[in-house]
Amino acid sequence: VQLQASGGGLAQPGGSLRLSCTASGFTFSLYSVGWFRQVPGKEREFVAAITSSGGSTSYEDSVKGRFTISRDNSKNTVYLQIDSLKPEDTAVYSCAANGRGLFTSRSGYDYTYWGQGTQVTVSS
Fold it and tell me: How many helices (H) and strands (E) does the chain have?
């Protein structure tokens, strides 16, 4: 079982990045997927989640309107489009898979599989 997050990097405020989370080793299409982020010294924070079919999504309030989560089950991949980047978006972004595919969850405890994370740095 593997989840691989990619697409992070250095971006300027106001810019955009698209993160990808690619899965292998399990039936990805049955799992909901969430993105979380963490800054050193702070607790992990929920960012966004999407159900197994992609029919329902949820977002943390501070990212609504700027972040868009989507998925392509034919590619076993979930995307996180980040627009209008802010310095406070700087963090390690990780994806995780939840076996309760019909539901989105904001709690990391509900997720079974986790990827390693990708660093997003927003700075001018």
Answer: 0, 11
Q: Choose among 57, 68, 118: nearest CA to 90.
A: 118
3-state secondary structure of 73: helix
Q: Check if the beta carbon of residue 97 is closer than 8 Å to that of residue 105.
A: no
Q: Where are the beta strands (DSSP E) in 7-51?
A: 9-11, 17-24, 32-38, 45-50
* Site of tokens 């972040």: 67
Cα separation values, 37 from 30, 53, 83, 102, 117, Å:
23, 23, 16, 22, 8
pLDDT bracket for residue 42 (50, 70, 90): very high
| Span 61-70, pLDDT tens digits | 999 999 999 9
Return d(Cα 21, Cα 94) in angstroms, integer.
8
